[in-house]
Design a protein that fits this description.
Strands 3-4-5-6 form a 4-stranded antiparallel sheet, covered by helices on one side. It has 1 helix and 6 strands, in the order ββββββα. It is 16% helix and 35% strand. The two termini are 22 Å apart.
Length: 83
């Protein structure tokens, strides 16, 4: 889910924010999510090493990575976080 946070302003029903859209594509529970420093992309991952790179504004997968090794996964997560 992509949330629009409002910092506690607004009606009691939306005191902290509201869901803008769902990011659909994984077949199981997501175990990790990293947001790029510019807020444009998210990288989500499953326990099986499958990752999806999302363009947050439109909610679409821009790239899919399958069965990555632990080191590759770690380096990819670091690169998204610090770029």
């Amino acid at each position: 889910m992509v949330w629009k946070l409002n910092g506690g302003r607004g009606s009691p029903d939306s005191e902290f924010g509201y869901a803008q859209r769902a990011l659909r594509g994984h077949n199981h529970f997501v175990s990790d999510v990293v947001i790029s420093s510019d807020g444009q992309f998210a990288l989500s991952g499953l326990w099986d090493g499958t990752l999806r790179l999302w363009e947050i504004n439109c909610g679409k997968t821009t790239r899919r990575f399958v069965r990555l090794g632990s080191l590759t996964l770690f380096l990819l997560l670091l690169s998204v976080y610090y770029n």
